[in-house]
Write a structure and sequence with these properties.
Layout: E1 3-6, E2 22-39, E3 44-65, H1 70-77, E4 82-85, E5 98-102, E6 117-118, H2 119-143, E7 145-146, E8 152-154, H3 169-182, E9 186-188
Parallel strand pairs: 1-5, 2-7, 6-8, 8-9
Antiparallel strand pairs: 1-3, 2-3, 4-5
Length: 189
């Protein structure tokens, strides 16, 4: 495989050096927030944004070449995910050798109070979608993602996401309103 498809933080080009990036739609997939009992990088329970096979769905994202860096660095960044071929989910005539990272369904667990996604991570993801696809792309992200009920830890004052970016306040406010519309709880520190 020579390319990766990013559907979360990899859409935010500020978080990686892989170029050139190309907008592309992956068919037969949705995104979901999944709790996992143990995240290898954090050594604790976590909530991961994952791609999930869904026959009648599609998600927008970015495709980029792996390049000279090879897979090792990206595999380390995407710890907790497995690398899967996405060739059967790309438009006809598109490239081959495209990988998508997804959590093995066997690693999913029932959520507990220890399982929360973080706003610092979601901010980075939405900033990427806003940059690449505009507000309508950010709205589509919310509509093509499941599992909002896991809730989000408001860590903006002391971000825990390792690739945190400066996200404008108006986009953060829009994210908060979108989470409220989804009924996603926000837990304050």
């Amino acid at each position: 495989m020579d390319y990766f498809f990013g559907y979360g933080s990899l859409v935010n080009q500020r978080t990686h050096v892989h170029r050139p990036c190309q907008k592309i739609t992956l068919t037969g997939w949705r995104r979901a927030w999944w709790p996992v009992a143990h995240h290898p990088a954090y050594h604790r329970p976590a909530v991961l944004l994952t791609g999930v096979r869904a026959p009648n769905s599609s998600i927008d994202g970015l495709m980029a070449p792996i390049g000279d860096l090879g897979w090792d660095a990206l595999d380390k960044r995407e710890a907790g995910y497995g690398r899967h071929s996405a060739d059967d989910s790309l438009p006809d005539g598109g490239p081959t050798g495209v990988a998508v990272y997804a959590v093995d369904p066997a690693n999913r667990c029932a959520p507990t109070d220890e399982h929360r996604a973080t706003l610092s991570y979601l901010d980075v993801v939405i900033q990427g979608y806003w940059d690449e696809f505009g507000k309508s792309g950010a709205e589509a992200f919310f509509e093509t993602t499941d599992g909002w009920e896991v809730g989000f830890l408001n860590d903006r004052a002391a971000p825990t996401y390792p690739r945190t970016q400066d996200v404008p306040k108006d986009i953060q406010d829009w994210i908060d309103a979108s989470l409220a519309a989804k009924g996603a709880p926000i837990v304050r520190l």
